[in-house]
Amino acid sequence: MAARPNVIFIIADDHRYNAFGVAGDRAVQTPVLDALAGSGTMMAATHIIGGVDGAVCVPCRACVNTGTHIFQATESQKIGDHARTNVIRQGAATMPSWFRAHGYNTHAIGKWHNDLASFSAGFCSGDALFFGGMSDHRQVPVFDYNADGLYPPEARRLEMKFSTDLFTDSAIDFIELYDSEAPFFLYLAYTSPHDPRTAPEPYASMYDPESLQLPPSYMEEHPFDNGELDIRDEKLAAYPRKQGEVRQHIADYYAMISHMDDHIGKVLQTLTASGKEDNTLIVYTSDHGLAVGQHALFGKQNMYDHSIRVPCLIKGPGVPAQQRIEANVYQFDIFPTLCDLSGIEVPANIEGRSMKALLQGETDKGRNTVYSLYKDIQRMVKDDRYKMIRYRRSADTGQGSDYVQLFDLANDPWELNNLASNPRYRPQMDMLEQELAAWMKRVRDPYAELFV
Questions:
Q1: Most buried residue, 189, 322, 345, 408, by most Cβ within 10 Å?
Q2: Could you please report the per-residue DSSP string of 221-286?
């Protein structure tokens, strides 16, 4: 029996699903991610499930690491309960802890945005550990790994190396120095391309804002109150959104992505030089997407595809090359998929489903429909063609609108033409309404009654 494969799990922060070349954006330069997709499989319709926290990265990271939806992943799903909405549920098997229990040396680098107890249970070692949400990329507060799980404020140090360089160098050191016979699980979590988008040269000057085309979904103002127009992310640009300012944000976003792409390439080159590439599974994904000017939004606190879809590239033993799969899947399906590909059992009672069969060319009709949520104000249901988003005014904040959108994604991939009031699409609306209601009931969504 062949040795179990190593795993390198790379997760970015704010990388939209189509913001790299092979995914469809020909303006941004991402030769490394494009090559990774070419030598493996791209799951082109990978979705986050969302959560009840404005910092969407917190619930998304909990979900990807537990392989399940947010109502199973964390201790609390109460809006504003920040002390517990980031805490992974006690007793839940996390991806690093599960691989550790099955003989893997688990090593963490970069961002961990959940609780320290789940981190310590998951990792045997680590370097350049960032336990916050965001920071200046040139002043990154990090910790050295502590086997006792103690990370007091006085142990934190400020790294002046750019975050992407810092985490990349740590990953290179780990791969070069690794000499154990046991397989490794490397968790490499970048904070790029999250703002402040201040890529170093020559990347900062790589994109001329005036030469960039605005996306078809560019708008000066969002057409209605979605309940989260005043959050920090939406204050990164002035209202109404001006074309020049949006182009500059896109240029800076692309610069961060290209810089990160280059550094991921250095990690993969080190893996090749180590002789371990052929027996290593590599995953690239992001915690969530980002609007960056689409629909007049800049953040991720919405249900449009630019925010709820993420990259998902998988390469390694058992994964076909040059394959693009369009089936709707969840980001939390990655955990059971890696288990399946590594030859270890999948944890019981999780929502995620292995994508191994899809990777090997089989179809799965049960995957047609996916769902996503945000706080008590937005719910989404989507099948292989139509997508419905329901909005509600928050009883707590008074923000939001009682509104519904329906998009025919086959003919309107930029989500511009709302068909909800068109009687011709009443059958689609009814079907999606029923599916959304049934899903909210099944997962015990505490805010379900607001959307019925």
A1: 189
A2: S-SS--S-SSSGGGGSSPSSPPHHHHHHHHHHHHHHHHHHHHHHHHHHHHHHHHT-GGGEEEEEEE
Q: Indicate the SS3 state at residue 177.
A: helix
Q: What's the DSSP call for residue 22?
A: G
- For residue 40, give the DSSP letter: S
pLDDT in tens, 369-417: 999 999 999 999 999 999 999 999 998 899 999 999 999 999 999 999 9
Q: CB-based contacts of 368: which residues, under 8 Å, 6+ apart?
A: 328, 383, 384
Topology classification of domain 381-451: Arylsulfatase, C-terminal domain (3.30.1120)
Per-domain boundaries in the chain: 6-367, 381-451
The pairing of strands 105-111 and 125-130 is parallel
CA distances from 288 to 13, 16, 105, 144, 410 (A): 7, 7, 27, 27, 22
**In the structure encoding, which two tokens stand for residue 90, read together?**
């006690």
**pLDDT tens-digit series, residues 313-336:** 999 999 999 999 999 999 999 999
- CA pair distance 32, 37, nearest whole angstrom: 9
Task: Write b or e for each residue in 427-437: b if 16 or more Cβ atoms lie within 10 A of its Cβ, otherwise e.
Answer: ebbeebbebbb
Contact 125, 110 (CB under 8 A): no
Which of 172, 166, 53 lies closest to 114, judged by CA? 53
Two tokens, residue 9:
């799990």
Is the distance from CB of 88 to CB of 94 less than 8 angstroms?
Answer: yes
Phi-psi region of 329 (alpha: psi -120 to 50; beta: other; left: phi over 0): beta
pLDDT above 50: residue 1: no
The pTM of the full predicted model, rounded to 2 decimals, is 0.97
Question: Residue type for 216, please?
Answer: P
- The candidate with the shortest Cα–Cα distance to 102, out of 179, 1, 2, 4, is 4
CATH superfamily, with its number, for domain 6-367: Alkaline Phosphatase, subunit A (3.40.720.10)
Distance (Å, whole) CA 185 – CA 102: 11
- Residue closest to 17 by CA, chosen among 259, 212, 307: 307
Tokens of 330: 């969840």
What radius of gyration, in Å, describes the C-alpha atoms of the chain?
21
Distance CA 63, CA 313 (A): 18
Q: What is the mean pLDDT of residues 55-79?
A: 94
